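your task:
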Amino acid sequence: MSEIRGTMSIQSMTGFAREEGTFESYAWRWELRSVNNRGLDVRVRLPSGMESFEIRVRDAVGKRFKRGSFNISFNLTETPGLAGYRLNEALLDRVIAIAEDVRARTNGPPAAPEGLLRLRGVLEPEEPDADDAHRTALETAMAESLGHALEKVAQARSEEGARLVGVLEGFLGEIESLAVKARGLAATQPEAISQRIRGQVEEFLGADAGVSEDRLAQEIALIVGKADLREEIDRLDAHGAQARELLAAGGAIGRRLDFLSQEFNREANTLCSKAQDLELTRTGLDLKAAIEQFREQVQNIE
């Protein structure tokens, strides 16, 4: 049971990140969540009018990750205090004319400037430049901010992946120990089968039944052959060695580990079906339980 050594660049598929940014009069917040998925699924929620930016978001996720279900939300607002204002001179002239007419009719005081400026529409927020250069600069800033958020998600997934390596190693060690135990128990099966069959023949036919020893030996050999577990246990050992190699190599190995989990389970099922004594059956069931725990953890590996 060799230990895994070297850099274990394993990522889980669970991660979260939040990233905020500003550009001129804009402020935004990215929120990214990643969970298990058989492939790569990206769901993006962007403000109205930004639909074209979604392609850029999906491309950025696809270049960094192979698997996982991503929920990405983007909130964009105009930062208070950064927007400029312009005077609607045409409206102000009309308002002043009306105010002068009212003052003349009522002999009232002249209209105060601050009162005029508070009227709706006299002061209007300045719209940021909407030319292509400005929009490109804004989208570049948003994309850089998204890149920082994706880096945070990758870091979270790497940290969880490093933890999962230790967990998987523990289950592999348990599977390997149970395979060693099963090998020892399986080695005693031929003798146990022989004694049981001879005892059954004597019990049902009597000691003087005159059964040919050669015929009896052939029948025993046939049953022992069907109960032979050496190939299954050898394959369990081989699968364990391959799983350790994958963990040591790192990368996007989740699907290959899941396939190995199925192969592990296939051999454990065969072992249980061939087991000829209670202890070996119990060992096979313990194997199945350890393999299922291993497979549950593998589901979260990218």
